[in-house]
């Protein structure tokens, strides 16, 4: 059995977190699937396998639609963590068909390409305003001044969350997302539970207000779908709204700062982008690939399967290494090189299969809007100080990105 324990793969090592890509190359050289004892997971490092397994119905984000915890050989979550799991387990990201199909279909109706297109002027104006303020100040923290407020405001606008209520959204999201890291601590779990309770209570009140006074927002749309056919419970509405907020900005925030940090480290590519703004769409795709904001996505094995002669038993957990797949030399030419003109770029940063990111079109609009605004309004933007990585593996980002205008 191939194992990862004797390799450089160490998601808790600051050196690994600073640059995990050499360790991924070791994993790919070692095999197609490797057992990692410290998390009791099977690591999948190759692009072809990750892409195929994300579409394989022998795997699932959940197993509860087919098995009890006991049947599956797993321990039920701690009772004190129940508010987090109630919130998480009713969102479509952690559901399987038929519930996933039903919820995604309802959300898709309110999350159409027309909706995204309608939001584009709002996104462009907000990005421009944020960057203009950064430029007027002579610099600042790209994370807190541009990368965070843009997608948080956009998804809050879509959901119909009033501006005065938006301050806790990002902290709630950060605390909830802490539970998606490998082996979260009790302190992390306690913060996630508290945020789950507070966010759920807020949304329950907002849903009650929208029932009385519906608007053109997504929450009103979900209520209408629920009331017409009784197909969406209140808990499903709450979980869906939280998922859309969390997924709707976490990846965009981290892709923005990871991307600009990569550009500052590759001045030739930054110069090419500044000289030709038509590169923005391909730059967005390449930066998503080059330093992937979501490094790992988990799946449960629902039925025994075999990979390259190794049997993965029912009840096992598989870790799809998105960051490794996006640097697979069998798919990407010179994968360690940042190339904003890369034509063939089948990165899987937005996942694949039935759980493909429903907000991917909006994320692309947001990333392109902030990039264009920075290129146009802050053309001499430069790094002020070396950034620090967040001590996270699964959701990869920076503590901040201090910039200045020359």
Mean pLDDT: 92
In terms of DSSP E residues, the strand content is 5-15%
Task: Just give the CATH class.
Answer: Mainly Alpha
Query: Which secondary-structure class do the elements indicate?
Result: alpha+beta
Number of helices: 16
**Helix content range:** 40-55%
Topology (elements, then pairings):
Blueprint: H1 14-18, H2 21-30, E1 34-36, E2 41-44, H3 47-53, E3 59-60, H4 82-89, H5 99-110, H6 113-136, E4 139-141, H7 142-147, H8 149-159, H9 169-177, H10 186-212, H11 218-229, H12 234-265, H13 267-275, H14 280-290, E5 296-301, E6 305-307, E7 310-312, E8 317-321, H15 322-325, H16 360-377, E9 381-383, E10 402-405
Parallel strand pairs: 2-8
Antiparallel strand pairs: 1-2, 3-5, 4-10, 5-8, 6-7, 9-10
Helix pairs in contact: 4-10, 4-12, 6-8, 6-16, 8-12, 9-10, 9-12, 10-12, 12-14, 12-16, 14-16
Tell me what you see in this structure.
- By secondary structure, this protein is an alpha+beta fold.
- The chain has 16 helices and ten strands.
- The protein has a single domain, classed as Cytochrome p450 (Orthogonal Bundle), CATH 1.10.630.10.
- It has helices at residues 14-18, 21-30, 47-53, 82-89, 99-110, 113-136, 142-147, 149-159, 169-177, 186-212, 218-229, 234-265, 267-275, 280-290, 322-325, 360-377, and strands spanning 34-36, 41-44, 59-60, 139-141, 296-301, 305-307, 310-312, 317-321, 381-383, 402-405.
- Strand 1 and strand 2 (41-44) form a beta hairpin.
